[in-house]
Design a protein that fits this description.
By secondary structure, this protein is an all-alpha fold. It has 24 helices and no strands. It is globular. The model is unreliable at 414-434 (pLDDT under 50). Residues 28-94 form the Importin N-terminal domain.
Length: 434
């Protein structure tokens, strides 16, 4: 391929998006793909971003930059790295209001550059120092800080284990600075929904990487803001989902509870306050929020599973966590209880391994109530005709229930009345109902 002009590249992008002839679109797609693989792509993508002609050409250019940095970073001599970084930062600042998808592509390009550019020390510190005092830059700054931890384990990046370790240590060092910045954003933006969603997404990303200091987080106002958002009836669906994702990420991050005790206690108490909000969501028939709460309750139970089995009813082995899941099992939609299945499998497995009759006795009533709830869900409508299909959603749900029953039946079957009690249980009849 000979080096094309930027005008020709722009023309091809227009054909890709707007040519009414499918053959024309296909030709443009093939040609642009070839261009992206060439060395000319670096310079031409940069020129397209400078032109700022329209969303399509800027998106193509931003995507090309991200792709080249991910797959072909070795093509660039080290002395060009700083110029590339400065150029990308200039582009994201000038294009920040054009389209969120362009901001995301450029943020990914900057993050992938930072992870591969060993000479860019303390990139988080550099970015926060450069942009945190400019309110208009906050949107893209938080976007970069969101994708940076997500890209650390990206398979597209050719970085070795030593470099990854170095990056993670660097991000851990600046993690508290990031959280402080996020809290400042919340204070400045008040109840701005879009900003809160961005803040929660970013915080969740840092929880997922596992680098946040749990003592620092336990006393941070952001946790309080998270639970306040989840407790409010008027919280929108999108904000509710972002807050729920963040809490689930936090619970997953403290799975080794004993080493994260202060944060574990705060999250434990915070989730227990959401029961009333769950009932309000049920009353309003807001299934999206109901599913979010059930995800949070399930993640809580998963995180504290070992503690619950080790010291049931004491401290963070509080059995109210199981009560929350059983409340969800009572919801009329079977999709809600299905979220918790993995936890019940794991609980059954843990109790089977311990083989302690006294311990089994503590958990048996909870398993019995779960089985009765599942029996109700598995019953067919009175007006149903014929044999249910195993391949539809409801049929697959009944199969999963059957698998779960097999894994926990030993707890119910070990009652003094033995096998007869298990045989007569209503969930068996429900499962085999035709």
């Amino acid at each position: 391929m000979e080096k094309p002009t930027v005008a020709l590249v722009y023309q091809a992008v227009q054909a890709l998006y707007h040519d009414p002839d499918p053959a024309g679109k296909e030709r443009a797609s093939v040609w642009l793909g070839e261009l992206q693989r060439s060395m000319y792509a670096w310079e031409l993508a940069d020129q397209l971003l400078q032109l700022k002609q329209d969303v399509e050409s800027c998106y193509f250019a931003a995507q090309t930059m991200k792709m080249k940095i991910q797959m072909s970073f070795f093509e660039l001599p080290p002395e060009t790295h700083i110029a590339l970084r400065d150029s990308l930062l200039s582009h994201i600042q000038s294009l920040k209001d054009l389209s969120p998808i362009i901001v995301t592509q450029l943020a990914l390009a900057i993050a992938d550059l930072a992870l591969q550019m060993a000479s860019w020390k303390g990139c988080v510190h550099t970015l926060i120092e450069k942009y945190s005092n400019d309110v208009s830059s906050m949107t893209f700054l938080i976007e970069i800080l969101t994708v940076l931890p997500e890209e650390v384990h990206s398979r597209s990046l050719r970085i070795g284990a030593n470099r990854r370790t170095e990056i993670i240590e660097d991000l851990a060092y600046y993690s508290s600075t990031v959280v402080t910045l996020l809290m400042t954003c919340v204070e400045k933006s008040g109840s701005n929904e879009k900003m809160l969603i961005k803040v929660f997404r970013c915080l969740g990303s840092w929880f997922n990487l596992g680098v946040l200091d749990s003592n620092f987080m336990a006393n941070n106002q952001l946790l309080m803001v998270l639970f306040q958002v989840l407790q409010r009836d008027e919280t929108s669906t999108n904000l509710h989902e972002a807050a729920s994702d963040c809490v689930c990420s936090a619970l997953y991050a403290i799975e080794n509870v004993d080493t994260h005790m202060p944060l574990a206690q705060q999250l434990f108490q915070g989730v227990l306050t959401l029961e009333t909000a769950y009932h309000m969501a049920v009353a309003r028939e807001d299934l999206d929020k109901v599913l979010n709460y059930c995800r949070i309750f399930t993640e809580l139970c998963e995180t504290f599973l070992e503690t619950t089995v080790r010291s049931p009813g004491q401290g963070m082995g509080d059995l109210r966590t199981l009560e929350l899941l059983l409340i969800c099992a009572g919801h009329p939609q079977y999709e809600v209880v299905e979220i918790s299945f993995n936890f019940w499998y794991r609980l059954g497995e843990n109790l089977y391994k311990t083989n302690d009759p006294a311990l089994h006795g503590i958990f048996r009533p909870y398993i019995q109530r779960l089985l009765h709830g599942l029996a109700r869900h598995c019953q067919l409508d009175p007006d149903h005709e014929g044999i249910p299909e195993d391949t539809d959603d409801f049929g697959e749900f009944r199969m999963r229930v059957s698998d779960l029953v097999k894994d926990v039946i030993f707890l119910v079957g070990s009652m003094e009345s033995g096998g007869a009690a298990a045989r007569d249980c209503p969930y068996r009849r429900a499962l085999h109902q035709h």
